[in-house]
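note to self: the first set is below, dont mix up w the second
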Amino acid sequence: MPLRQPWVSASGGFSVREGRLIRLETDAGLTGYGDCAPLPQAGTENLESADSRLAGWAEELSGMSLEAALGRLDAATVGTPAARCGFETALLDLLAQQAGLSLARWLNPGSLSVVKVNAMIGRLDRQTTTRALAAAKAGFSVLKLKVGMASPKEEIALLRDLAGCLPPEISLRLDANCAWDRRGADEFLGALSGLPVESVEDPLANPDASGLSRLQATVPFPLAADESLLKIGEDALIDHLPVRRIILKPMVLGGLRPALSLARRAQGSGLECVVTTTVDSAAGTLATLHLAAAVANDLAHGLPTSAWLASDLGVPPQPVEGRMQLGKEPGLGFTLLTVLIIDTPIPGAKIFVS
């Protein structure tokens, strides 16, 4: 799926999202979907490894009950989180449909029906103010920006200009994607005083618990661990609490249930949890929305990335006034929209082009 414009961050960028749509069918006529969209720079396997794992599961799990297939998936070796996310989502879609529940309600009976979301307005540049004002007009109160791609001095100047133009109720969520050494992080974070900063993600290029803890003690807002979560490990973060927030990406964490389990553990230790996509198809975005609803907090989650895609496999959830509403249908709620089907070298697999 090509993007309307390149996705750029301090850790790299891309202009096309590639992946596999998982479709599982039951003898009772139900169809479940899941998105496997690897993104190695975010911490997943590559597409070749995902294909190999999916082909194996397609052969191994065919004919099993849904519960048995899910148990076999749980026992699988970790290493292909995107493949596991896609296959697990399709199984959970079917199980939720069988139960007559939304996927979010199947995961957590106390899930939300409406989820607050942030606007993703790209990198910090000279056009940021225009994009930010448009997002504020559309009803978003939290705006996410990529930083760490220019000097701290340049970016702080741009942030001050931006803050001077924003309505008072708007806050900024800044994502550095592990851009800075300790000196750069100190310089940037130290200059944010007086700015409407909601949080800063991944400030350190080589994060460790002590370094993040030191930085967190210097700022009043949460530091968040996304890529740092993988580099440090969830045990170190949850046991030592060097930051106040973690970012949950089901495509990176191996699916909805592993991500929800981590969320519950983190919340029990006092950590905030924000759920985000990895710029996925409509199937993946819907799955991530259900996860955010199951996490059930009042933070803005990073879900509205579908607008970056020039084409999609279905209709993604749309933000209205900075919120996303879950559908009332059971399961995931994904409907495949295609105009072209192409056979692939993988037996039984096809490429769907919308």
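second set (the one i keep forgetting abt)
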Amino acid sequence: MTDAVVAEGLTKTFGAFTAVDHLDLTIAKGEIVGFIGPNGAGKSTTIRMLCGLLRPSAGRAVVAGYDVGREPEAVRAHIGYMSQKFSLYGDLTVRENLRFFGGLYLVPRRDMEERMATAVSMAGLEGREDALVRTLAGGWKQRLALGCAILHRPPVLFLDEPTSGVEPEARRRFWELIHHLASDGVTILVSTHYMEEAEYCNRIALIDAGHLVAAGGPGELRRRELGGVLFEMECAAAGAALSVLQRAPGVIDATIFGDKLHVLLHDAEAAAGLQPLLARQSIGSGPPRAITPSLEDVFVQLVTRPHQAGPAA
């Protein structure tokens, strides 16, 4: 399978600050890769380099067959890009925005009406073509922005936190559009801070402090990256229990997840001592229960203990 995106040693510095540090990443044609990491990890900087909007300080990247350092204009002509900030014009109508972006992307005049109609249908805005964009709900706006980004039928699409601030139902519909595009062969890199959205991706790349610390399928990362066995406990006083468990023998880490605690242990045998330990501190709890780790568990471990995660795959 041909790789649509290849980054080798990709690096970006701003003075003494290194935002992206020797990042290696490949994305196959038609693959959806989720790009996750904490705020300031380097996600947006990486995407902007891959889009030809920022020149790399070192390393190289090839997108849709074009070198981002030597051929940034060619790269931009063969990609679609949605920034995390809504990018359409609120004082223009749906139709006017589509026509404007179609002109920017040099969509042939003979194809313009048909592609605009496709974008309107994709956004679910039939009959609202003359509505001002600022009057639309968030989900409609984001689907319209996606339609504008693909008017020129790009083979590679970069989405930088496209569903931030969008309600759950609208996010689900947006992801249906993403998978439809991927089934047509479009390659997609999408950054997100919603862990449930990462589950929709074929593969996940996790970046922290400019370093790619892990990459793989959602199931693969859950199996590979924790470095221990995970248990769940219900506790009457979660804060007090957390303080005790984080210092307990055999415990790698403990974190609060909703009304429960997730406790990562070196081995399953250590679980037997957790409830008695809490009882000696007058903290009531249920028995520990072995659970399958979520992507959020993996994310927390890799970000807080990146050097224990091993090299990125």
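remember for set 2: Confidence is low (pLDDT under 50) at residues 306-313.
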